[in-house]
Amino acid sequence: MRSNFPVLNSCIYFNNAYAGPISISLSEHRKKIEKKLLKDVDGFKIDNPIRIKKYQKTISSFVNSKEENTFLTPNFSTGYRYILDMLPISSKILALENDYDSIIAGLEERNFNVDYLPITSDFETQIQNKLQEKKYTVIILSIVQYISGILVDFDALNKIKSKYTNLIIIGDSTQFLGADHFDFGNSPFDVVIGSGYKWMLAGFGNAYIIISENFLEKTGNKLHLISQKIYAGHNNILSYSSLNYMIKFLIKNDFSSLIKLKNNLNDKLKYELDIIGLLDPIIKKRKHHSSIYNIGGDKKLFANLQSAGIRCSFRGNGIRISAHFYNTYREVDYLIKNLKKSY
After folding, report:
1. Fewest 10 Å CB contacts: which of 148, 201, 322, 341?
2. The domain 2-23+254-342 belongs to what CATH superfamily?
3. What is the rounded CA–CA span in Å between residue 172 and residue 293?
């Protein structure tokens, strides 16, 4: 598996939350698609609606959504703004402070009534408290926070949804889908939007929008009009095909086993970070966490990690580390060894 990702030969890649590595097999698939376009041109374009329908089916099967309620879009930010424009202007929205920049920007671009809640160790409880104070109609949040890696508690969100049945919950699933199993049909979410270039390992220019029947009923939007809007103009079939290919790749390689590998590795990473005092106190208080961590660190530490061949990112007030199924226990040990040198 690791040999399929060339970047892993030249570094220790703990930067999946920034961009997932591209596989040789995906690169070969993309060449085949480009070759078809090169040979057929207009004939290739004529078949695009058929391809898009096929790709929608692949995504919907992967996450248990309705095929006709599943759409492709170039990136999260574009798809998210489509959804925002489907909400009534009178919507009362609750969002999280310091959530993904594009989530906040999309709200600030519009004249919604928006309140923001700090991300605390019990922010789901705080959401419930806010709902008792004010009749919010929409909650918008990332399923996994891109800076800290904090993972929303699905059970808590389901309880909120059960109690407030008129509530619409919209999630950014970019840092979640591909890193864990997701059953949209039995989730608390009415809409999820996510890009495929991170945990889906699908390269740039592809994302998905998944919409529930509840969202359609509450907002009065029609599927055929949504489809017309999203697919207006020409579409980047090469990028959409990449997402379709990688979903099938993950399934073919036993996605459940891959996630088990990642989770076991994550247990070790979390434990080791805690031992050396670099685990965020908020994370310690929560039941579950993703495989994204933000540790305290400055430019000197970042430079030291880069010099040691460890890829990571500056995010928020620290250095973000993220692990996927292709990482190894030896790489975790190497990371911890280099962190100890700097503290």
Report:
1. 341
2. Aspartate Aminotransferase, domain 1 (3.90.1150.10)
3. 18
